[in-house]
Amino acid sequence: MIARHRPLVDHWDWQRHALCRGMDSSVFFSPQGERGQARRAREEKALAICARCPVHEDCARTALRAGEAYGVWGGLTEREREAALLRDRARLHEQNSQVSAACARMPGNAEQQTPRTVGRSDSAPLWPTT
Ligand code: SF4
Questions:
Q1: CA distances from residue 2 to 5, 8, 13 in whole angstroms, order as listed
Q2: What's the predicted TM-score (pTM) here?
Q3: Domain spans of the chain, in order of start
Q4: 103 is in an annotated binding site
Q5: Which of 55, 61, 76 is the best mutation target for the ligand 1 pocket, counting ligand atoms within 8 Å of the beta carbon and taking the most?
Q6: Which 8-state DSSP code applies to residue 13?
Q7: Which atom of ligand 1 is found nearest the CA of 19?
Q8: Is 59 exposed, middle or buried (0-12, 13-18, 19+ CB in 10 A)?
Q9: Looking at ligand 1, which atom is closest to the CA of residue 17?
């Protein structure tokens, strides 16, 4: 079978339509030590641009998948992306717990069988003890 992959350029094609293309990136990334009102004001400016961007969903998805730690991407601030990733991890953990619990309840699960004595009339050990 021949594996068909999309050309790499397709993954980034959305960036050609980015509203921020050619803009000063300092609107989207905080300078070192930026805090409080200055940070909020800069983020609001960036978020207003993202809100009008035709590719904000692709942008947000790419940033979340890549675990982008810095900047405003796809209409999400650093803190919003971090919160979304934490929610996602918690949801995955919950799903894994449910799958593990369901597997443990399945008939034939090794933990539910009585090893060594199943089908035997006595419970003598299977190997000599002396
Ligand atoms: S969503 Fe925002 S950061 Fe992403 S491409 Fe559009 S304008 Fe740029």
A1: 10, 17, 24
A2: 0.71
A3: 12-105
A4: no
A5: 55
A6: G
A7: 7
A8: buried
A9: 5
Which tokens sit at 113?
């069988």
Pocket of ligand 1 (CB under 6 A): 18-20, 28, 49-50, 53, 55-56, 59, 73-75
Tokens 């339509």 identify what position? 17
Structure tokens at 84: 């979304």
In order along its 130 residues, the chain shows pLDDT tens digits of 566 776 666 778 999 999 999 999 999 999 999 999 999 999 999 999 999 999 999 999 999 999 999 999 999 999 999 999 999 999 999 999 999 999 999 888 755 545 554 555 555 555 555 5
* Cα 13 to middle of ligand 1, angstroms: 13
Residue 127 structure tokens? 């190997």
Cα(80) to centroid of ligand 1, in Å? Answer: 15
